[in-house]
Amino acid sequence: MTGRTARPKPPGHSQMIAAIARCGDRDAFASLFQHFAPRVKSYLLRLGASPEAAEELAQETLLTVWRRADRFDPSLAAASTWIFTIARNLRLDLARRQVRAAAAAPPDEAPPEPQPDALLGAREDEARLVRAISDLPPDQAQVIREAFYSDKPHSEIARELDLPLGTVKSRVRLALARLRLRLAEPGDST
Amino acid sequence: MSRDTVLTGVGRADPQRHPSEARLLDYACGSLAGSARLVVGAHLLTCPACSRAVGEFERVGGDWLEALDPALMSPEALPLALARIDRPSPPAAPAAPRPEGWLPVPDAVARASLGRRRRAAGAWIVPVSRGPGAERCYLLGMSAGRGAPAHGHRAGEMTVVLRGAFCDGDEVYGPGDFCEHDGSIKHAPRATATGDCVCLIHTDGPLAAVDWVGRLVFPLLGVG
User: What is the spatial distance between Cα A21 and Cα A28, in angstroms, rounded to a whole number?
Assistant: First the structure.
């Protein structure tokens, strides 16, 4: 570690997860819940979940944080990264169950449209995500942004941006190399 | 040569044997679902370089989550959560044993491997999952030196090697190797002479036999 300040990440979330693992610290859980549950709900709303489903999955996500706190390794990932992967996996599990249910019963309703709430403020979030990947050239940032922001596979992004698949692939490859450079910077190896 | 070009593919000596970075991004953000996710996930269990790349993309996801505008939770959300953590957690399903001689596999694959094998012409197949749509996922075993009849694809295919090795034209794919084809390829993969080969395969559609052997064998295996 050099004297460089770490990137702006709220301090203490990793320690809170450690406190849950160590002694079932309910205050730590409440703090984590109040910080992350609304963000996880926001993430799910953005990807088209209904407010009820988004709230329930946010609950499930934080419940999973409580149950699996002992498996969290702060040397491998930031708290926000770990919680993102939990929310993502629960969302995929739910989608899988829905596919199975849909196969068992005839389809009767259309998939939920993105909620108006989710679309409001979209621009703002987009700007913030750009900041998260701010050292990427615009064409690379655009592909990464589309992937997270609209949950589309790269083949679909290529179609929508009217780019050859190879171009999208090479942009992702270059973006990864850049992200890696950023992670390799001294003082940023949390 | 630009700096970016030099940095490309760090730790992935032969990109032909790994998912593309774009696939890994799909995996990280969750847009890769179903059995395609299972196949890439099986590769990640054995490939530190690709796992690291996924971790880097997931970190972008974590940063994004952190930066999102918090949504409004219902007032009873936190009391409800605090009540729920007091309830005993549901017991985890016991993990299925890893088949002997295979690389580590996702639990769903280990469980599927216990299913009944359909056998034909030196190969066997166990279905892992079906759907949505024409999507199929299965385990394919090939006896040493034997192979699948020549076939084409009506849609994409992803394969990861779980045991042994197979050759496809001049290419040899060994344990943990991943390969992806679009619908245009016609090939006749075959286990190397050194031992049996097992692969986990995802296809977006049925195989298209190119000769009578395939037309005979694929329906028996349930992949035609």
Answer: 10
The torsion of the CA quartet A69, B105, B42, B122, rounded to 10 degrees, works out to -170
* ipTM of the complex in this document: 0.87
- Nearest by CB: B77 against A55, A77, A172: A55
Domains plus CATH for chain A? 12-112 (1.10.1740.10), 121-190 (1.10.10.10)
Q: What is the pLDDT of residues B167-195, one digit of tens each?
A: 988 889 999 999 998 877 788 889 999 99
Within a domain: B26: yes
A99 chain-B contacts, CB cut-off 8 A: 34, 131-132
Q: Are residues B139 and B37 in the same domain?
A: no
Domain that includes residue B142, residue range: 107-221
CA dihedral B88, B93, B98, B103 (to 10 degrees): -70
The sign of the torsion formed by the CA atoms of A117, A119, A121, A122 equals positive
What residues of chain B lie within 8 A of the CB of A163, using their CB?
Answer: none
Kindly state the tokens that stand for A137: 């050239």
